[in-house]
Amino acid sequence: MSKQAILYGVLLSLSLVGSYWTWTHPETPLAGEEVMVMEAKAEDITTILWDSEKLDLRLTVSEDAAGRYLLVKSTEQKRRLKPHNDEAPAPVETPTPTTETPGEDPAKPEEDRFETYEEVKEFKAGKVGDELLTALSPMIAKRSLTNIPEDKLAPLGLAEPEATLTIQRAGKPDRVFEVGGEAFGTRDRYLREKETGTIYLVKEDLIRPLKHGSTRLPDRELIGVEAKDLAKVTVKDASGAERSFEHRNRVDEKAAFWAAVGEEGPQESAKTWVEALLKLKSTSFVAADETPTATTVMATITTEDAKGQKVTLELIKGTGADGKEAWYAKSTHTRLLVKMSSAQTGDLVADIPTVMGAPAQ
C-alpha cells in the first residue's frame, strides 16, 4: 500500500471520529472546570419556579402573535402597620397612675403594631427575564462537587437552603435545585440537585433575578425598540385623526431625521415627541383589584421597526381604585395593563395636536 493511500486512510478515520464526536456531543463547548448542568434550548423550558420563605415566583413561557415572553406570578410576604379602626372607641376614664397602678407604656411591641400580608402580582418579564432564559439554555456551572457529607453542607449554605429552584421542560423530568450560600471571595452561589445530591457552583447572575424577582423582573418598556431601530411611528388621537412619521437615514446618527410621510423636510417637533415617547416607562403592572373604571383611550400609537415588526400602544385615562384620575397604558409589548406617570403621560398626549399639525421645517 502506498504512503499516499495510508495518509488518506488516516485522514478519513480522523474525519469519521470527529463526525461521531460532534453527533454524540452536541452540547455547548465548556471551558476549564465548567460543568454542564442541564443541556436545554430556550424553547424547551416551559416553567421556572422559585420557592423561598418570603417570595414565590412562577415564570411561565408564553407565546402570542408578537412572539415568546415570560409571564410572571409573584407571591410575596410583606409587613405593614396595622390599620386604625375607623370608629374611635368610646372614651373611658383613665385612673391617675400611682405606685399601685403604674401607667401603661405607650410604646407597643412591634408584633402588635405590624401585620403580615400576602402581595400577589402578575406581570411580563423584561430583558432580565430573557437573560435568565439564556443563562438556563444551556445551564452551565463553574464546577461541581460530589459526595459531600451532610455535616459539611452548612458552610455552603445548604444545610438550610435559602430557596428551591425548579426548572420544567416539555416532555422531560423536572430539575429541582436547593439554593445555598455564596462562595468565599466571590458572589457565586451553590446549588444542590435534590435527586442526585450533586452540588454546583453557578454565577450569581443566575440567582439574583429570582431572589429579587418582584423588582428586577418586571418589564417597564412600553414598546421594546431602541431609537436607532425605529423606522416609523403613526399617532392617532382620541378623535381618530392620525398622522405618520418616518425615521429617515436612521442608520446614520448624524444624518438621521424624522419627517411626516409624504413630506420632504425634517420635523423637529416629531423628533422631540418620539424621543419623549421612547423615554416613557410604566411604573407598575395593574393588579386584579386595581382595575380602573371609566377608561378612555386618549391616543393610539403604532410603531414599526426596521424588520417590519409592529407594536400598538394605547395611552388610557381612567379612574383608579382610589377614585382619582390616573393614566394607564397597554401595548402588544406589555401584554397587560400598566400604570403610568400622570405628569409624563399627560404631557405626551397634550403635545399630540402640536406634532400632528406642525409643518415640515
Describe this structure in words.
The protein has helices at residues 3-24, 110-113, 127-135, 204-211, 213-216, 268-279, 342-350, 352-357; strands at residues 35-38, 45-52, 55-64, 67-81, 114-124, 139-141, 143-145, 163-169, 172-182, 189-193, 199-202, 230-237, 242-248, 257-260, 282-285, 293-305, 310-319, 325-331, 338-340. It is α+β, with helices and mostly antiparallel strands and 361 residues long. It folds into two domains: 36-80 and 120-216, no CATH class; 227-357, no CATH class. The longest helix is centred in the first third of the chain and has 22 residues, at 3-24. It starts with a helix and ends with a helix. Mean pLDDT is 87; it is low at 5-26 and 87-105.
Distance between the termini: 83 Å
Q: What percent of residues are in strands?
A: 35-45%
Count every helix, treating DSSP H or I runs of 4 or more residues as helices: 8
Secondary-structure element series: HEEEEHEHEEEEEEHHEEEHEEEEEHH
Alpha-beta content class: alpha+beta
Number of domains in the coordinates? 2
For the biggest sheet, the summary is: 9 strands, antiparallel
Number of E strands: 19
Strand order of the largest sheet: 5-4-3-2-8-9-10-11-7
What radius of gyration results from the CA coordinates? 29 Å
Ranges with pLDDT <50 over ≥5 residues?
Answer: 5-26, 87-105
For this structure, the quaternary state is: single chain
Overall pLDDT confidence: 87
Estimate the helix proportion, in percent: 10-25%
Task: Label the overall shape.
Answer: globular
